[in-house]
Every structure is written in structure tokens, then in C-alpha cells.
What does this fold into?
Amino acid sequence: MAQMTMIQAITDALKTEMKNDENVLVFGEDVGNNGGVFRATEGLQKEFGEDRVFDTPLAESGIGGLAIGLGLQGYRPVPEIQFFGFVFEVMDSISGQMARMRYRSGGTLTSPVTIRSPFGGGVHTPEMHADSLEGLMTSQPGLKVVIPATPYDAKGLLISAIRDNDPVIFLEHMKLYRSFRQEVPEEEYTIPLGKADVKREGTDLSIITYGAMVQESMKAAEELEKDGHSVEVVDLRTVQPLDIEAIIASVEKTNRAIVVQEAQKQAGIAANVVAEINDRAILSLEAPVLRVTAPDSVFPFSQAEQVWLPNAKDIVETAKKVLNF
It folds into this structure.
């Protein structure tokens, strides 16, 4: 075991798969010699060469088209979109091509592309760098969308994503890149896509969340415990497809739930989680399922983002409403 930050775990996963499979290619804006904006690909070009780790022009649409073609030729492309707020430039490649490849070819062709990209608030980025656009991705059938919350999960999930024969959107919250370390196996391992993880056991309330909000939810659970409340924290890890079984199992145990996301209420995936709970476990509920989200406004400039972003205090306040219903 080694103590790793999330960024180190991601680099380790990329290195592991590039050693295992010569068809794994890493490319994007400044990912080569510079190692990317956050140094996620640092050292990879030196180790594996410019044919397998290379820079592209500043053109997300070109990156997407290249990934589609390489995937059809037997490669496993791992392109990086430098910040996920720029994904609109490559939406045709993702939604119009990659997501439909298996269906339109009758299963004869696949698009084994893993698109990595940083996102998320709390680090004072310029406009359009921090937006949580996972809801946009989950609304497109044919895509898998993964958002790790810990270094351990990041490595295992990324290896699984690269090995998957269908397109995976792998989103990395910038605030988590270097915020803490965790023991991560140095050898290869995988975590199945589409499987949630109970980060904290509890009996009185389920907090269902993902990404950076896992850490805020854990803080909230500790605060609620001081008042005698036992709170379970479920980290979805994959937001498409959802682990419905894990969500319902937790709700049926605690009989109360809130869903927490960084994205605006009209965005993200919280509304879908609430709908699934109501569809499948409404008779187990002793209170309405509430949401903790950002306001329905454009992500603010960095001076105001700490006021705008959901935090542990917001989660505690909403949890008490459900607990006291």
C-alpha cells in the first residue's frame, strides 16, 4: 500500500493500463511533456513515448473525432478534456457518435473511449471551468458516467473504465485532487462500474451523494451523530448507470433519505435518484426525500462560490428537517 492523493492514484491507474495494454493511448491539450494542467499525466510521455502520449491542438471537437476513429481501429483512447466546462465543443462526438456506436452497428462495433476531465467548484477557477455537467451526460443513453470521491476509488474505477468496451465519462473533482491522501494498492485492481459504496453505516437517515459532496456529507454525518442521529452515507461513484439496488437497500434500512449534489437543483442527478426512491420504496419512507443542491443559477465568479456551493452545514439543516418530520 502507498499513501496517494487522488491525482497520484489517477496517474498510477493510467500507467498501469498503459503497461498492460499497448493499445491504450493518452492524448489531449498539454498532456504530453507538461503532464496536463494538474499533472495527471506527468511522466507518461517520457515512459511510453510520444506515439502513445501526445498533445493535441486546442480543439475539443478534434479530440473527440480522433478518439472515435482510434476506438474503431482497436485502440483504447483515453482523451482528456482539459476542463469539463468545454465539453459542449465535443458533444456531437460523444452523444451523436460514441454513445450510439454499439446500437447503430448492431453490436458489431464499439467505442472503448474513456474521456477524463476535471470539474467542480471550491478552487476559484475562471468562468466555465467548474461547472457540474454530469446531468447532461447521464441524460444520453449509451454512456457510463463515473465520479470518484477518494484516491482508492479513483484508481480502481479508472482501470475498469479503460477496460470497458463502451464510452465512459470519467469526471475528477478538482477540489479532491490533492485535498487528502489514502492508502491505495500499488498493484492493479478494479472496482466495478455501476456499483455504489456505503462510506458510513447508519440506521436513521441515508445521505445519497457523489463527488466532493461525499466529504461534506461525512462531515455532516459526524455533526448529526453528536445529536444522537445515526446517518448512513452512500457514495454512488457511478451516476450512470445508478446502483438502484444499493440506494433502495439503504432507504429501506433507514426509512429516510436526502440526496446531495454540487450541481444546481435543475441539473445533476439528484432528481432522478429521488424519483427512483419514490418509484421503488415509497412505502418504506417515513418522510419526504429532500435535496441539497446549489441554487438554480449560473456558477458564480470565484469570489462568491463559497456562498453558492452546498456544504456540510446545508446538509445538516436539511437532514434535521427529514429526521424531525
About this structure: The chain has a mean pLDDT of 97. The radius of gyration is 19 Å. Residues 50 and 178 are 27 Å apart (CA to CA). The first strand starts at residue 2 and ends at 4.
